[in-house]
Amino acid sequence: MPRALHPLVDEQEVLEACAVAELLEVLWRPNHEAAVGPVPPSQLRALTVIEQRGAINLRDLGQALGSAPPAVSRLCDRLEAAGLLQRSRVSTDRREVELTLSRSGQTVLADNRASRALRTAEVLQRMPADSRRALAESLAAFRAAATGLLGLDVPPRGGTFSDTA
């Protein structure tokens, strides 16, 4: 455990959040295969950032992922080759490339979310209803804090998982 935690955060809270994140990785691992084949977590993260930003350039994607420009360019090459990403020149600056999700990229994210939702529902149904409600409220606050920290500032997700396809 890192020594320099924020003074207002209890170490046990951090340990619990990290333990849950690790469990979610294990719970979801066999389920991040999409119709186009397995999509590695690094590519899913990039697709998610691109989706949340609507359109993004390579520099901003690199900043959001915490990756160096050559690595981001190679990642985008792989995503484009898989048909998950579209690159286009920005009309106001022909030197700048804009990244957007292809229809296949949108489908991969929707399928991935639906699969994860099914696995998560299996866990949630084992919890008492009042605990589920408290968890949902806490997770909404966590999500808001995380998206703000990452500079994503996306509105809360609503609707159903099938709405995104």
Q: Can you describe what's shown?
A:
The chain is α+β, with helices and mostly antiparallel strands and 165 residues long. 58% of the residues lie in helices and 13% in strands. The protein contains 6 helices and 5 strands; from the N terminus they run αββαβααββαα. It has helices spanning 11-28, 41-53, 58-65, 69-81, 103-124, 129-149, and strands spanning 33-34, 37-38, 56-57, 85-90, 93-101. The strands form 2 sheets. Strands 3-5-4 form a 3-stranded antiparallel beta sheet. Strands 1-2 form a two-stranded antiparallel ribbon. Strand 1 and strand 2 (37-38) form a beta hairpin. Helix 3 (58-65) packs across helix 4. The chain is globular and about 55 Å long.
Write the layout of secondary structure elements.
Elements: H1 11-28, E1 33-34, E2 37-38, H2 41-53, E3 56-57, H3 58-65, H4 69-81, E4 85-90, E5 93-101, H5 103-124, H6 129-149
Antiparallel strand pairs: 1-2, 3-5, 4-5
Helix pairs in contact: 3-4
